[in-house]
Structure formats: structure tokens, C-alpha cells
Amino acid sequence: MVYTRPKKVRPAATARRRLAATAAALATVSVVGLMTANPASAAAKQTCGEQICVATAYQGARYIQDITVFTKDGLPGKLRAFAADFSQSKANDDRHVFPVNRELGEPGSGPLLVCGGLDRSGRVLENHCVRIP
């Protein structure tokens, strides 16, 4: 005879709560996805460096919707975002979305670089850029 350890039985209430929470989360994601659908010409691009990742949503070659900068290690620092004449910073954060919602750079001046930076202890640790075609 082989002895097998009895399985833990979870109460039905726990399973129902988990199912309800999952259903609510999926419904919320679906509704938000429909409300924030991007226009046909919108695109997004993300690249990562050694310590940070920079993502941007844009339309065409010049209209930048936002710039998202986040640390790969999850530790806080001063995050910066810049592109053409746009420059903003947010202190002591590990992820921040910088709303831009405007056209940047001069038309016909070549590709636009959308960049993010990370500063800690008063030192610039990394600047990383995403190239917009």
C-alpha cells in the first residue's frame, strides 16, 4: 500500500471570490481597452538599456502622446523624459508616464529621439533613447 498525502481542500467561498475578482478584472481591462483604443496611425515603441526602459506612444513621425520611463530593478530614482523641446522630471519614482500630447521637433529634420534618464544620488546613471521613424 502506497501512502499519499491528502490534498488541501479550499472552501467554495474562496474559489467563488477568486473567480469573481478575475471576472471583474477581465471586464475592466476589456472596457478600458475599448475606451482607450488608439487611432489607426498610432504606434508604440520600447527599448531598454542596462538600468531603464523607455517606451513611447506616437502618431506619425512627430506627434508624441506620452513617454514612459521605468527602472528595471524597481528601485526609485529621479526619472526624466526628453525629446526635442520637451523636458520633464519626476523625483523618487520607479515608473512614470510623462504626458506630452503634442508635436515635437521640426518637420523634415530626420528621425526624432525620445529619451529617458535615471539619476540617483545626484549622478546621472543612464540616458536611453527610442528612435521614432
How is this structure best summarized?
The chain is an alpha+beta fold and 133 residues long. It has one helix at residues 12-35; strands at residues 42-48, 52-59, 63-71, 77-83, 86-93, 95-103, 112-120, 123-132.
What's the structural blueprint in terms of helices and strands?
Blueprint: H1 12-35, E1 42-48, E2 52-59, E3 63-71, E4 77-83, E5 86-93, E6 95-103, E7 112-120, E8 123-132
Antiparallel strand pairs: 1-2, 2-3, 3-6, 4-5, 4-7, 7-8
Structural overview:
This protein is α+β, with helices and mostly antiparallel strands and 133 residues long. Helix content is 18%, strand content 50%. It is built from 1 helix and 8 strands, in the order H-E-E-E-E-E-E-E-E. The strands form 2 sheets. It has a 4-stranded antiparallel sheet with strand order 1-2-3-6, with no helix packed on it. It has a 4-stranded antiparallel sheet with strand order 5-4-7-8, with no helix packed on it. A hairpin with a 3-residue loop joins strand 1 (42-48) and strand 2 (52-59). The model is unreliable at 31-35 (pLDDT under 50).
Care to count the β-strands?
8
Helical content band: 10-25%
- Helix count, per DSSP? 1
Judging from the principal axes of the Cα atoms, what is the shape? elongated
Overall pLDDT, averaged?
81
Termini Cα gap: 69 Å
Structural class: alpha+beta
